[in-house]
């Protein structure tokens, strides 16, 4: 069923997602210096939204279809260019991009992204990610029917897809061409049932308990409920009439560093007032209540002897750190100061 909605793509395939002007609706109030951010307009240099700021960290509400940084796409907007435009005084000349991004979001994913403003802060944030002490939660709209279980743990190991024509994509263990699958866990809570452009969809809160590439998108697809607008992990039939964006949003982020607890909650972009195509009809779980639970939950305990540890000593009864693990860790830390040609 096709319903005309502002900003909806007609006949676009992969790599051709564009948004018509549609209706400009402004999202939330930024924490500090910022332009207002439209949910339907493409990202521009001017429309950066900051939801948390301290002496050591920024958390920005990244726009959908926006690269974090790029050495090849120099003429397109990137988050790095937005930060340089709004915060030139915070750019670090000792780094190639000027800013230290503590983690990644896919090009098509919007939401909370943490930026460290100095090397010490970057190291403390990295330690939290390494020890799995970071709490993250995402909002998504899932297509092809309603998710039947209101709560579930998705447990599919994820590996790289070696199938011809599927380079740079991931897959679940047991599928053809799946290489080196690793354990992957995602918690799912159904928030609402409704229709998107006339098709039945579920609005869900997703909490990744591991950090695999494309984990949430792969797990949703494995349930036969891919994310609305996902051109990579949705079926080909989904690409006939795509929405203006992929409906996956990094909603909540908490990084408990030793010096401060970085915590940010971004505005929910998947509400009817901001997207006329989304029409919820059944409330299953209140998002506000889940936010209170997230905020009140204790930080996860550090994972002792976790893979990738940068420690020089070996804890008792723990397997020694491999050269590959140590090299990977040191490469991550060195990227903040290396010049592009080094």
From TrEMBL:
What organism does the record attribute this protein to?
A: Leptonychotes weddellii
> Could you state one GO biological process linked to this protein?
enzyme-directed rRNA pseudouridine synthesis
Gene Ontology terms for molecular function: pseudouridine synthase activity; RNA binding
Region annotation Disordered: residue ranges? 297-326
Q: Which gene encodes it?
A: RPUSD1
Superkingdom of the organism of origin? Eukaryota
Locate the compositionally biased regions of type Low complexity. Answer: 303-315
Protein name stated in the entry: RNA pseudouridylate synthase domain-containing protein 1 isoform X1
Q: Which family does it belong to?
A: Belongs to the pseudouridine synthase RluA family.
Annotated Pseudouridine synthase RsuA/RluA-like domain ranges read 57-222
């Amino acid at each position: 069923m096709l319903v005309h909605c502002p900003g909806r793509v007609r006949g676009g395939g992969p790599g051709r997602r564009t948004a018509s002007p549609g209706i400009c609706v402004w999202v939330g109030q930024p924490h500090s210096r910022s332009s207002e951010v439209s949910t339907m307009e493409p990202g521009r240099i001017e429309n950066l939204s900051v939801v948390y700021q301290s002496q050591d960290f920024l958390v920005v509400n990244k726009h959908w279809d926006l690269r974090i940084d790029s050495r090849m796409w120099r003429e397109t907007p990137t988050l790095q260019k937005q930060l340089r435009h709004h915060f030139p005084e915070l750019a670090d000349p000792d780094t190639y991009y000027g800013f230290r991004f503590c983690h990644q979001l896919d090009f098509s994913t919007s939401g909370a992204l943490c930026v460290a403003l100095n090397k010490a802060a970057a190291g403390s944030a990295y330690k939290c990610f390494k020890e799995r002490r970071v709490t993250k939660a995402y909002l998504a709209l899932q297509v092809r029917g309603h998710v039947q279980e209101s709560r579930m743990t998705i447990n599919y190991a994820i590996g790289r897809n070696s199938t011809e024509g599927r380079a740079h994509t991931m897959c679940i263990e047991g599928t053809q061409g799946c290489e080196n699958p690793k354990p992957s866990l995602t918690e799912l809570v159904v928030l609402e049932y409704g229709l998107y452009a006339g098709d039945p969809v579920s609005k869900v809160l997703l909490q990744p308990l591991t950090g695999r590439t494309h984990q949430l998108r792969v797990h949703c697809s494995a349930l036969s409920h891919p994310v609305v607008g996902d051109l990579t992990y949705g079926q080909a039939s989904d690409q006939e009439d795509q929405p203006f964006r992929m409906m996956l949003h990094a909603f909540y982020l908490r990084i408990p560093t030793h010096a401060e607890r970085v915590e940010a909650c971004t505005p929910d972009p998947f509400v009817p007032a901001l997207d006329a195509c989304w029409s919820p009809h059944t409330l299953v779980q209140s998002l506000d209540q889940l936010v209170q639970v997230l905020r009140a939950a204790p930080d996860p305990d550090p994972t002792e002897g976790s893979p990738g540890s940068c420690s020089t000593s070996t804890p008792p009864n723990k397997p020694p750190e491999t050269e590959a693990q140590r090299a990977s860790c040191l490469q991550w830390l060195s990227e903040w100061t290396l010049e592009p040609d080094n």
